[in-house]
Amino acid sequence: MEAMKMSKRFFAFGISACIAIYVAYIKWRLDSKPLMGATEGIAESRGDKLNHQAMTTDLSVFYGIMFDAGSTGTRIHIFKFTQQPRETPKLTHETFKALKPGLSAYADDVEKSAQGIEELLEVAKKEVPMELWKFTPLVLKATAGLRLLPGEKAQKLLDKVKEIFQASPFFVRDDCVSIMNGTDEGISAWITINFLTGRLDDPQKRSVGMLDLGGGSTQITFLPRAEETLQTSPAGHTTSFQMFNHTYKLYSYSYLGLGLMSARLAILGGVEGKPSEGEELISPCLPPGFKSEWQHAEIVYKIKGQKAGEPLYESCSNKVAKMLYKKVHKAEEVKDLDFYTFSYYYDRAAEAGLIDKEKGGSLTVSDFEIAAKYVCKTMEISPGSSPFLCMDLTYITFLLQELGFPKSQAFKLARKINNVETSWALGATFHYIDSLNRLQY
Ligand SMILES: O=c1[nH]cnc2c1ncn2[C@@H]1O[C@H](COP(=O)(O)OP(=O)(O)O)[C@@H](O)[C@H]1O
Ligand SMILES: [Ca+2]
């Protein structure tokens, strides 16, 4: 149902507007590569005649501000676009700043959420020239953290942010603050990665798939080549949208509760939103004899490792396999496609020393498995400084296989491409600017 509504919404962007904007994207991508990061020397239009409608006509410089209210943190992305008269816009720069914890951490003290939002807005004020503030769209989209909160609590947080946004000097519409649905999240990230890797200009060119592992939810999005994939997908796992005179039918699904932090809780045997009241959560994935506290979604849990028996990796994988049992749809086709992985896939690979923290790299499912076995083995002797690493790597190893990836499958891990964060934020900004442009017609 959600995906159906989503597809309609995407269609509702308007076919003509979509074609226009994506022709612009494609030309922009082609033109922008050499310009990435090189913003100096570009004349900035600062006249008072600037107005919102002029965004795609007269302006030589414009900006878009996207807040990502994730379950573990809030991040601002400030995108700078340049556009010469009668030419297509180019993405020339991104400014990024992240704060922890996520917005959902303030569910019981909404006023406290203001400080972080205001701090990030200050970054935008520094970055965007003052005379462009009132033409610069400001948007916040929340993901799993707010999806997992009771509706009323989430709404209060959104209302607070909206109040702050409306008092800001930026351009805000009524829809400036919202909870994004999981399919939009996956599609937006898919657009980002295919845009940044230059695959959006040619529908014949093989697109790449996208895997995002957040704190609360995880997404898989790809463009199936086999009709069978679409036909055999469960309801709600496919969606379509119009792009560059082409209808893209994507496989996109977001698993709420299978983000890494939510998965930890499930593996520990806890229930989201319910304190365990003095009771200890004992896990076969934690180092034997290890005892500590773990905070998740504002609740502090007492946690403990199970007594040594089986090797840690063995006992942990049994638990993880049970936790994931029948929760994830295996799409056969994924093994024939190239995928980029984001967020915690990247962070945990970097923490385990599998990739360079800055440069990223390429890894197979087996690499995660070998690292999991190695880390779990070392933890049998000493918990070390990352007591969750055995659990996290084991979970990633199993999740990837549950999603249908064979052990030999290689993934690309990139935090940034051309100095732009690989996240759903850029794709979602495209959509938003597109919807603003539509208002002109
Ligand atoms: O734009 C980004 N740049 C770098 N890392 C990001 C970005 N967005 C999310 N992450 C990473 O995502 C993970 C947390 O996911 P998040 O808090 O977004 O949960 P959610 O997507 O389930 O709401 C962390 O590893 C965080 O570093
Ligand atoms: Ca996220």
Automatic annotation (TrEMBL):
Residues annotated as binding ATP: 215-219
Lineage: Eukaryota, Metazoa, Chordata, Craniata, Vertebrata
Organism (species): Lepidothrix coronata
Similarity remark: Belongs to the GDA1/CD39 NTPase family.
Keywords from the named record: ATP-binding, Hydrolase, Nucleotide-binding
EC number: 3.6.1.6
Active site (catalytic residues): 185 (proton acceptor)
The organism's place on the tree of life at top rank: Eukaryota
PANTHER family noted in UniProt: ADENOSINE/GUANOSINE DIPHOSPHATASE, ECTONUCLEOSIDE TRIPHOSPHATE DIPHOSPHOHYDROLASE 6
A molecular-function term among this protein's GO annotations: nucleoside diphosphate phosphatase activity
Protein name: nucleoside diphosphate phosphatase
EC primary class: hydrolase
One Pfam family it belongs to: GDA1_CD39
GO terms for cellular component: Golgi apparatus
